[in-house]
Amino acid sequence: MGDADRIENVVIIGSGPAGWTAAIYAARANLEPLCVIGTPRQDPAPVLPGGQLMLTTEVENYPGFPDGVTGPEMMQMFQKQAERFGTRVLGADVERCEFGERPFALHLSNGDVVRAKSVIIATGATANWLGLENELRLATSGGGVSACAVCDGALPVFRDKPLAVVGGGDTAMEEAAYLTKFASTVHIIHRRDEFRASKTMQERVLAAPNVKVHWNKAVVDVLGDDFITGIRLEDTRDGSHEDLDVSGLFIAIGHAPATRFLEGSGIDFDDSGYVALPDGGTSETNIEGVFAAGDVADHVYRQAITAAGMGCRAAIDAERWLAEQGD
Predict the structure, then answer these.
(1) Any idea which architecture 7-126+255-324 has in CATH?
(2) Residue 148 catalytic?
(3) Known active-site residue 312
C-alpha cells in the first residue's frame, strides 16, 4: 500500500456486506484485493466503515445466525474472514476516480493515489433521516428508531405495539404494509394531504384495519430516554403540536447512494441516482473493468444478504474480466 508503483489487481471501495464478500471471493482467487473501507463521518447520522449494518443492533434475518447477531459483530466477522485470505485494508476515503484509461487512478483522502486494473464499487447507500437529535441518538443506540422495517420490524420489541412510519412514497407504503403483520397499530405520518405512492400501494395499505394515517403532520421530536416512548407532531397547516404514543419509529423518506466521489468519472447512473448496471445479469458498469455491488446499485431490495450476493457476483465478474485481459 505504500508502494507508489504498485498496480493493484482489484480495489474494492466500501466495507459493507457487498464489499467484504467481494474481498473474500477476490482474495480466495489470489487477486490480493485492496479494500478501501472509508472513514467515520456524520451525515447527519453516523456513517461508519461497515455500512448501514453498523447502525443495526440486531440482525435476525441473515442465514446462519439462528440466535441473531448485531450488525457491528457481523461486519467484524466479514472483515476477519476477508483478511484471513489476504485482503489488505486501507482506512481512507476515495475522493475522486479516473476511469478514462487503465490502470485506473483512485485519489484518496490521505493524498495518495491508488492505481488498479479493476475496481469494485460497493459504497452502499445511506438512509435519509429527519435530522432530529433524539431520532439519531435512539437510532444509533438501538432505542427503537430505524430506517428499515423489513430489517427490524419483526423484532420482539416491536410486536403488538403501536408503531409509526414517516413518509408518503412507495417505500413508506411498503414499510407500513410489512409492519401491519406485527404492530397493534401502524401510524403513518405524512406532511401533506395525499401520498406520492402509487395508487395500488396506497389502496393495499389503507385497506389494512390497523393502519391510521396522520395527514399534514411532521415529526418535530422523538420522545424517550433509552427507548422511544412517543413522537411529537406538528400540524403543517397551523403549527399546533400533539404527542403520539408509539413504541417504534421507522423513517421511510428515501435513501441516497454514496456516489459523490464518482462524479466526473464517466460512470453512468440510473434515474434514481444509483450506479447503473446495463446488463442487469452481471455487475458490469458502463466502463470495462469497473463493477458495482450492493446498495450503491440496488434501490429495490437493500438487504445485507442481497448485497453480499452482489459482492460475490462482482468478484467473480472481475476475476473473469482480468483473465480475459491476460492479467
Answers:
(1) 3-Layer(bba) Sandwich (3.50)
(2) yes
(3) no
